[in-house]
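Can anyone check this?
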Amino acid sequence: MTDDDIILKAENLYFSYDDEKTHSLRGLSLEIRRGRRIAFMGANGSGKSTFFLCCNGVNRPSSGTVYFEGEPVDYSRKGLLKLRRNVGIVFQDPDNQLFSASVFQEISFGILNLGVSEEDAAREVEDVIRRLEITPFRDKPTHALSGGQKKQVAIADILVMHPKIIILDEPGAALDPKHTAIVNHIIEQLSEEGITVLLSTHDVNYALEWADEVVLLKDGKLLAHGAPGEVFSDQEALALTNLEQPAVLQLFNSLCAKQILDRSLPLPRNLAQLEQYIADIHS
């Protein structure tokens, strides 16, 4: 791995919401590689959202350094504008993000603030609306949208600015299965386009199948960071973060213990893979 592979780096970050009495981040160091899909996990209060807000300059660490593409974050107005164009956050509750009258105006706001002409901005907005299948409600007021539709618009807000990193804080929170599937499909598209995706979730089964890397946080510190199979095989770390091992791995380990499957097989990432292992026994 070269330095050019590292798009975002946190070095010994500390952050406090109460004048250093307590810390939400406590010496967190982490390297994010370009184009990766990274699932952040941990109990509520572990520091996930605080870290995300440090990544795009909303939170300024009380000590430590955030680097974007090898350069320390510049907290001047110009520096933060550049950072937020490249590192966008979709908040857990989209009502904290959406404020314009109509969907079209909402998606236009950020890109117009970057100094893009109205004609070019309109073209970019229409493209994002089409890609994210927002057309049926493009002229609706944002407050009249369903939770899933608001999440789609919140992602469009960021995507229209062509970020290099997109951060999603609990993207499936409070969504029904239909809209969860829509949002998951959008996340898949972002990854295929080469955007680095950071996502917090409590769903270990989704993280196992989706992520290239899993980060476990506890009390503002890095507890584990690695490939999903490696992290989810660490029972001690999972217990410390109140997480259970993904169901597929539990079943795989059970079948291996009964000598139905061989432990030399690669760890399955999903049920279909495990079913194939079982089918291969009888073929």
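Reply from J.R.: I decoded it. The longest strand covers residues 6-15.
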